[in-house]
Amino acid sequence: MGIALIWSIIMILFRWIFSKRRGAISYDSSDQTALYIRMLGDVRVRSQVGFEPDRRGSHPYLGVDFRTLHSRAESAGSIPARRIRRLFSFQRHLLSSRLLRGAPHLNPLHILDEDYCGQAKCMLEKVGSWNFDIFLFDRLTNGNSLVFLTFNLLNQYGLIELFQLDMVKLRRFLVLVQEDYHNQNPYHNAVHAADVTQAMHCYLREPKLAQSLTSFDILLGLLAAATHDLDHPGVNQPFLIKTNHYLAALYRNTSVLENHHWRSAVGLLRETELFSNLPAEDSLSIERQLGSLILATDISRQNEYLSRFRTHLDEDDLCLGNASHRHFVLQMALKCADICNPCRPWELSKQWSEKVTEEFFHQGDIEKKYKLEISPLCDSEANTIASVQIGFMTYVVEPLFAEWARFSDTRLSQTMLGHLGLNKASWSAMEPEASGSSEEGESEPGHATDEPSSRVLSQGSQES
Question: Which residues contact 194 (CB under 8 A, 6 or more apart)?
């Protein structure tokens, strides 16, 4: 009992120290862009403020709190409870980890024994299934789906042992990653990150990748999936640019969100010293390649990546024995995982469609309130869930997954295309006018291979 009390006190102090952290932005003198952003400190404070009133710009800064942008009144009291659950979860880990007591190394899954109920464990046995219900898994894990799923996959691939990752540092890193997602966002939250990570796992198991990827590639792929939308504010890049947000200025209006997600992830890697046991050059390589993967999710560069992918497939010159080619395939896999919702079974896909559209319309309401130009797809009076989804599927999702099926012609690829077709038909049935315009667009030769329209890119910018 005395030991448990001591550990409880240690955990309270631990948590207090975490809450008092202060971050910083460092710059690379060679290009004056942010080298990394440490979260939960100065940057989080600025993120809470949303728009700094003393900055100069063509438009007055708005007092938007990104942390509460999408929150509902009745959910305000749930934040302390969530923090308490995570504190207890982390505390149970410390109490159950014999590593802290100098005992022999145990199977890493033992640290999950007190966090998982039997149903969640059963679900993890089918984590490679394309029908995996991430919403159910999140409920069964008490809102900790990203932490538990990512940890399980890292262990399943043997990466914890292979890279000799410290258990406490890894757990802390994953908890901080999950906490840095804005779970008030209807779509861009930790559950979305967990869903993308699960999809990435499905792609990593595809024959062509499973036979060629190295353990280093797999580690990068899973980390990139888990952190690809880290600290997403719930609004898109054009919104940040037209309101002169400091992040838009910091990244020169280029891949603003993706750069921020990457730098935020690097900040947490450095703060937790997760890879401190690796040579410095290996740690820097992980950071750089992590950035390359996350930046590939910028939907404004969709046509660039798709054209390059198509050219490789046409010329049949992808060599997965080549490290650069493997990395490119990982980029394409992450892009697919990021926007795979329309390729899920209808029950799951419909929920994601409703959530992302809710987030769009929230942004539109803010723009209306402050008399800003309403972003495409964000006006609830001019758009419906069906019209938004039909356009997104037609001009963004279908071209990408058609090429992915050419690369990896497997049962999974055919399943995804099958779901995509059925889901599109379901939305079309709800939107007769959109269905007609969609069919007309599809009848134009080569239409799907053109650059997606600005309206569709707007949605993609938020989904990526």
Answer: 134, 137, 138, 145, 146, 149, 150, 226
d(C-alpha 91, C-alpha 144), whole Å: 14
- Output the pLDDT for position 97: 46
Average pLDDT over residues 427-451: 54
How far is it, in rounded angstroms, from Cα 233 to Cα 64? 10
* Cα–Cα–Cα angle for 202, 205, 206, rounded to 5 degrees: 95
- Cα angle 44-268-132, degrees, rounded to a multiple of 5: 100
CB 380 within 8 Å of CB 361 = yes
Whole-angstrom distance, CA of residue 366 vs CA of residue 73: 17
Indicate the residue type of 207: P
Among this protein's residues, is 228 annotated catalytic?
no
Residue located via tokens 């990068």: 220
In order of 109, 169, 170, 291, 292, the CA distances from 274 in angstroms are 18, 6, 6, 17, 19
User: By mean pLDDT, which of 142-156, 197-211, 429-443 is the weakest?
Assistant: 429-443
Q: How far apart are CA 413 and CA 42, in angstroms?
A: 44
**Strand, coil or helix: what is 276?**
coil
How far is residue 87's CA from residue 302's CA, in Å, rounded to a whole number? 40
CA 21 to CA 38: how far, in whole Å? 9
Q: What is the pLDDT of residue 7?
A: 63
Cα–Cα distance for residue pair 197/191, rounded to 1 Å:
10
Q: How far apart are CA 329 and CA 327, in angstroms?
A: 5
- Contacts of residue 107, defined as CB under 8 A and 6 or more positions apart, other chains included, come to none
The token pair that represents 422 in the structure block: 């059925």
The answer to whether the beta carbons of residues 302 and 460 sit under 8 Å apart is yes
Of all helices (H) and strands (E), which one includes residue 192? helix 190-204
As a whole number, mean pLDDT of residues 45-50 equals: 37
What global pTM score does this model have? Answer: 0.78
Residue in the structure block whose two tokens are 């290009």: 31
Quick check: 270 and 182 in contact, CB under 8 A? no
Q: Which of the residues 70, 182, 188, 260 is marked catalytic?
A: 188
Q: Do 417 and 404 form a contact (C-beta atoms < 8 A)?
A: no
CA distances from 134 to 68, 219, 414 (A): 24, 21, 21
